[in-house]
Structures are given as C-alpha cells and as structure tokens.
Design a protein that fits this description.
Elements: H1 14-26, H2 28-52, E1 55-60, H3 66-78, E2 82-86, H4 88-97, E3 111-116, H5 120-131, E4 138-144, E5 147-149, H6 151-158, H7 163-175, H8 178-206
Amino acid sequence: MFPIGFSCRAQMSLPEQQLGQRFFQEGGETLLAKSKQQKESMLAQYSEWLARSQAVILVEYTGLRMADLDAIRARMRSVGGEFHVVKNTLAKLALERSGLSAPPDFCENSTAMALAFGDVAETSRAFHEVVKNLPAVKIKGGFLGMKAISAAEIQALVALPPLPVLRGQLLGVLLAPASKLARTLAEPGRRVAAVLKAHSDKAAATA
C-alpha cells in the first residue's frame, strides 16, 4: 500500500514545469506552430546549402571545442566554403529532398557539414588542413555533385591540384602535337603492362 497522499506521478524538473506553464499560457497550438515553423525554416536553409554546393563533407564532431569550431568556420569561409552543425533528422530529410542518397551512418551521432561552393579541391584541402590535428573530427563521407563518396575518396580530393593548375594541365594536353597527345594517353597502359611483365618474369624465375 502507498502512504496516504503519495503520488505515482514523477516529479517534473523546473525547466519542464516552466515549459508546461508556457505551453498553456501562450497556447499549446501556437507553440507547436512556432516549432514547426522553425523546423521548416532550418530544412529550407539546409536544402539551399546543398543546392549551392559542389561538394559536401559530413563529419562527426563530438568533443570538439567551440574555439575549434570557430577556427574551422573561419578557414572554410576563407576559401569560399562554409561549415555548419546540423540536426540529423532535418539533414537526412534535406538530403532526400535534394535527391542525394545517403548511407545511414552519414546522419548518425553528431553531424556537421563542410560545404564547397567553389573549387572543390581547394576547399577539401583547406578543410583537411584545419582538422588534421583535431581527433574529435571524424569524416563520415560526403557527396561530389550527386554522387555519394567515402572518407577515402574525400582524401583523394585533397590530393588534387587546384582548379587553375588542372585547367593548365588540360590546356597543355590539348595544345600538344598529336604524337605527344597519343603518347600521353598511352602512357598509363604502358605502365600497367610493364608492371604485369615484371611480375610475370619474377614468377617464371622462381618456378
């Protein structure tokens, strides 16, 4: 038997009591409408970022200090990109609405987006430089255009030369004489053939 006057209802904390009072004072429907409005506004903002970006890097940031977050944001802005902490449920919905198919682990635990609005290689390299000594930042994966890419593929983006250099290299190939162009295009095949022959010769020698 419970003592007289005992209540089975759990005691609410002060913030919960204040929230309940506010809910009835301001009108429950009004508060719910405000909350829905805020979510729709955030969802529209996420979708706008994704529509503008050439590439997106999704990371986990649990344990990161505020000063480190500020440093990442500043570095990304310096190369024309942005870095934002996002809510998983809204980020997942924004990705779906943008036609981006994300693996489940892209929107688990804490999530932040590094957004490349310009040169993808330069932005990826700048992001890598600013987070390489921050173990709290763990790259989950991302998107290059509409294609989902892994953390390993993002590392490959870091190794790409800046866009002006790539353009110069392409121009050099296009302006080269036909014979040089043919040699340039054939070179990877010759290298693969040389490697295969070396392995074949080694196998024959040990047989």
